[in-house]
């Protein structure tokens, strides 16, 4: 059973994160200030350091929360596809990222926007950061295992093949060069498109961004990756 002290600590941490999120939305990551948060919450400035010894540790907590949140959205979207068709799973997972970015604009900017000056993400962020890509990789693995890929072969330069081999070893996955290269291109294009839309770079260029996004993810799934 969680004790009174533990509950109180958890509530204080949630309050600190909430105010930090408000600072993020108004001033960006560089504007997050532990002292300002303490003032907002009516805490003495020294007390807040018992929860987060530095601004960077608070940023890390926010980044981990954001990665876990978008990763969870992808996992739930994938699990909801009953027939396990890989093309349908790709579309639903991609849509989950798009929706999440629209509903969590500040958090999306924190993990996919401009790097925070002077901040270096620690090892703690790696696991949460890979949750979304792990879902995408599972689609590629399943598609290759089931033979549900029919994209036309493309030429891959030897130096890129070496990069793919290194990636395969690090991730401990068995995906051939053609499919892994296509998956990597699709992952980058997916989030590049989401960022262009969510950060307003399509203003006066694309009027119906939702429809354009659907076009992009369908093209990536069928023409680039080649899900059958």
What do you see in this structure?
It is a single chain. The chain is mainly alpha-helical. 70% of the residues lie in helices and 0% in strands. The protein has helices spanning 4-27, 34-41, 45-48, 55-79, 86-103, 105-112, 126-129, 131-146, 158-171, 177-198, 209-224. The model has no long low-confidence stretch (mean pLDDT 93).
Average residue pLDDT: 93
Q: Secondary-structure element order, as H and E? A: HHHHHHHHHHH
Evaluate the radius of gyration: 20 Å
Shape: elongated
Let me know the number of strands. 0
Fraction of helical residues? 55-70%
What is the number of helical segments per DSSP (H or I, 4+ residues)? 11
List segments where confidence is low: pLDDT < 50 over at least 5 consecutive residues: none
Structural class: mainly alpha
Short overview:
The chain has 228 residues and is mainly alpha-helical.
Tell me the layout of helices and strands.
Layout: H1 4-27, H2 34-41, H3 45-48, H4 55-79, H5 86-103, H6 105-112, H7 126-129, H8 131-146, H9 158-171, H10 177-198, H11 209-224
Helix pairs in contact: 1-2, 4-5, 4-6, 4-8, 5-8, 5-10, 5-11, 8-10, 10-11
Key words describing this protein structure:
single chain; about 230 residues; mainly alpha; about 0% strand; elongated
